[in-house]
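Schema walk-through. Below, the input block comes first and the output block second. Nothing else is stored per chain. Lengths vary across the set, and this one has 296 residues.
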Amino acid sequence: MEFHISVDTGGTFTDAAVSDATGRLVIGKSLTTPDRAIDGVFAAVSDAAGKFGLDGESVLRQTRLFVYGTTRATNAIVERKVARTAFLTTQGFPDILLFKEGGKLDAYRWDTEFPKPYIPRRHTFEVPERVTSEGTVHKPLDEDAVKEILATLERRRFEAVAVCLLWSVVNPEHELRVGELLRERLPDVPFTLSHQLNPIIREYRRASSTVIDASLAPMMRHHLSQLRTDLEDRGFSGKLLVSTSIGGVMHVEDVIERPIYLTKSGPSMAPIAGKVYAGAARQGDSVIVCDTGGTT
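--- output ---
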């Protein structure tokens, strides 16, 4: 017997859907176990497996495809339970995350609270360098200054680093060199380079996505790597895919390298499933799908 499994780990509950080769679909449910995700995942899978008259490990051994979705990244962002992250940007532009895109919808509402930057201003470090919009180097990268910054990051025990330099999307030379220095000086600290993650010209959008990705890296890389190991220890040898924020899936190895794709990973499944079931019931495209989580 061959099985397909899909699991969604939320902040409160973990849900599993298991189908066999005949198309029979059953569901299982358990409480989420934040400290050790596999316990909740395995409990939900075992709950579903019992409806086939099998135990959880028997089903995992016969599973060809395991699709995993989670709100862990989203919840971490909302609750600010992310890694202590440093933001490196071009000297003279330390307020990208503070000013955002500069405007607001209702310009004359003085009682509107201005949102705080995702990364505290005190965690921003200015890198002496400048590349023009044409890609020429106006001011060479000051490597000694970068090394001093990295020494400060090590001393202050930062857990992740986001690098977003002006016009790196046109000429990434300086960002790449900062990445090399990070590997040399802080080999155990994950980092994200903006031109590799989100190569667009809108500075705030590129910077904000970069810091979010970096801030999630330590937690989500550990989470996914541990989940993969724990599943294999219980007999799973199939393909492990992870649902993304746009409703598709990526290989677990790719998501480990780019954890920002995990934001809204779990919730993205609901509209996709709703569309499929609406089509099967010939309800057309005008469908409302509601998904209420326990945390977000």
